[in-house]
Design goal:
By secondary structure, the protein is of the alpha/beta class. The chain has 7 helices and 9 strands, in the order H-H-E-E-E-H-E-H-E-H-E-H-E-H-E-E. The longest helix is centred in the first third of the chain and has 16 residues, at about 1-15.
């Protein structure tokens, strides 16, 4: 039953994403009022609210219409809606090679360089053991990538896993404070990865 509801919801979001007129109409009804206290400006960009959604499908504009403050997607998810512009900040998830611990930093850096001109923000997942190594490698790439004149900065964020121990969380936050610009909370629980009934990941800017 949950799987059927999930599939139906995703079909509706996909249909919504293909209609600019409907998207604009729905978004006018869902964006929080400017006096709600939810709007904030971070890294030179305005967020209507701090809640976003991570999705890897062609539903980005559908979620945008529902009033989320930002969207997160990976490279494939972005390319599936390449010709559909967004009016809210887009966060690109830096993916890593599957089933290997080798070349992860290089993979993050390569994705960052390919997607630099498209993303407003970039996020990588928490890795309590090697997070600092990855962030240092990414910072080296960022230092040589161009920004348009007077354009906002492009922050490097870390998405926190919900299953970290207190000790791991403290260590991760110390690394983030030194090498990253902010936090996205929270990542998909490991127990739900690959579960078709798990309806995406809600995120919050911190």
């Amino acid at each position: 039953m949950h799987s059927e509801k999930f599939c139906l919801a995703m079909r509706m979001l996909t249909l919504l994403a293909f209609s600019k007129t409907l998207c604009r109409f729905v978004r006018r009804k869902t964006v929080p009022d400017e006096n709600s206290g939810l709007q904030q400006t971070l890294w030179g960009r305005t967020f209507e609210n701090p809640i976003g959604v991570a999705t890897n499908s062609g539903t980005l504009r559908g979620w945008e219409a529902l009033g989320v403050g930002f969207l997160e997607t990976n490279e494939n998810g972005f390319r599936s809606c390449l010709n559909r512009s967004l009016s809210i900040p887009l966060c690109i998830h830096l993916g890593r090679p599957e089933n290997t611990s080798e070349g992860v930093a290089e993979c993050y850096a390569d994705t960052l360089e390919r997607m630099w001109r498209f993303g407003d923000m970039f996020v990588l997942p928490t890795d309590p053991c090697d997070l600092e190594t990855y962030l240092i490698a990414i910072r080296k790439v960022v230092a040589r990538l161009p920004l348009l004149p007077r354009a906002p900065s492009k922050p490097i964020l870390v998405k926190i896993q919900p299953d970290l121990t207190e000790e791991e969380l403290i260590a991760v936050l110390e690394v983030i404070e030194k090498h990253a610009d902010g936090v996205v909370a929270v990542d998909t629980p490991p127990s739900q990865v690959g579960n078709p009934s798990f309806f995406g990941t809600a995120c919050a800017m911190v």
